[in-house]
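subagent[fold] <- orchestrator: predict structure for attached chain, return tokens only, no commentary.
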Amino acid sequence: SFKLSYYNEYKSYLSMEERDKQVKLDCALDLMRRLPPQNIEKNLSDLIDLNPDLCEDLLASVDQPLKIAKCKSTKKDYLLCDYNRDGDSYRSPWSNEYDPPIDDGTFPTDKIRKFEEDANVAFDLYREQYFEGGISSCYFWDLDNGGFAGAILIKKTGDGSKKFKGSWDSIHVIEVQEKGAGRNAHYKLISTVMLWLQNSRPESGTMDLGGSLSRTAEKDAPVSDMSSHIVNIGKMVEKMENGIRMTLDTIYFGKTRDIMNKTRSLVDLNMRGLTDKLNSQLADALKQHNSLKSKDN
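subagent[fold] -> orchestrator:
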């Protein structure tokens, strides 16, 4: 209620032009949440073409599927996002080099860079254990208020099967503030998962299932050195992904199964008719049996 009243008060100070732009942005974001995530780039481009004034706001507000690039120095794949972009160049987490090369790119400090390297190794192992493939990338940077922040990205696509296609994109943005003389830290995590699946079979046709889910979490944890942050962040990301995965399975996939089971039967009509007839005969026989039993009593 506080957030709603604050938002309404904020809107009251906006001019008519700004208020109209805010309404358009809200409608555009609401529409993007309902469109298939596998077409998010095209849908976003179409919305920007319809209203160019919303370009910056939409690009800053809408999470897009992660793209893949190959580091020229290490020959390793890495993920592209706004957190490793500087102009038209992207920084590799493996070599710390920009592609295309630039002279005045933004780089992390030596301390944060060492932490970034260790985090990439740790989450590369996490990705392999949980996803058995895919690509992960971690990027970290210093904050003006003394803490630091980072982004943990994971992408897993289908195995190339013609019948099954899909993609999992998870973006975890973490903010860390140390307190208590550096012996404790406060962590704030914002996670977004974009998932889409496509199943194509001659007997059942093509079915698309997709969507996105965002969650936040905060916690305090003790730290002894920089490696403690990796452990604490890793536990938060692991718990968050398990929770989102369970939510997707029980709510989204479960709801889809319920709908499909109610609208579509795997039993042919003749067999279903025989089953209904048998059930009716059993019900009549049970009714007669109960009637004779009550008369005897």
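orchestrator: received. Logging for downstream: Strands lie at 67-70, 77-80, 85-86, 89-91, 98-99, 135-142, 148-157, 164-179, 184-201, 205-222. The first strand starts at residue 67 and ends at 70.
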